[in-house]
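[[Local backbone shapes]]
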Amino acid sequence: MKKLNILLIGGTKDASNITKHIKEKYDSYILTTTTTEYGSKLAIESGSDDTIAKPLLKDEFITLIETNEFNLLIDATHPYASHITQTTVSLSKLFNITYIRFERPPSNLDNVDTSRVHEVTSLDEAGKLIASDFTSGNVLHLAGANTMEAILKYVPVNRFYARILKVPKSLEKCKLLNVPEEHIIEMKGTSSLEENLKIIEETQASVIITKESGDIGGVINKINAANLKDIGVIMLKRPKIKDLNKKDIVSNLDELDEKINNYF
């Protein structure tokens, strides 16, 4: 097998796992792009050869690909980073680079009580639902710093609590949105059921907002905690990427190996 020259679009735990796995199994060079210094640090710790720690525009991706000899593009971004996935799909076609989308599977909720779960397809829909149906108690936002602004159009900031990674970019966003410091809860990996229960109690939340982020995002623990506290869950469904071919999607490392071995 020839050497893999990989452009990895990362910044997730999945991307870190992929990097470790590829470095253990294949002769490879990996350049990982992330949107934050924190993501870059994780990428380096996982074994990435180089990193770029800032959001890239499409033209910047084009320049990056033109000045490197990548033969594999792996998109391991968050399931909700739809604009990035759309861009990477188009770039792979433009440059005729082998493309693999690593997408964590959604959690199996068959054995979970979802009677308190309200599925929405947009943040606006989530905000409007809170404004109409959850007018008392507080809002516990577990859907990431980038989604806070849309919710705060409908929710007064004194009712709003957010659990986020305490990285400069996210804290700056909180400051710009006037989220009080005491309403910011530090996220340290996936929270257990007990941790979610504690946060719901401390914030006196009547509803939580989450994404359909799969097991790695701890969505089942969030729903179970909400059930035990008899509060609502607003779950943002995953966006659909119109140009993404199902055959290019893998959801675990075995499937990734199969693709790599088929292509190379």
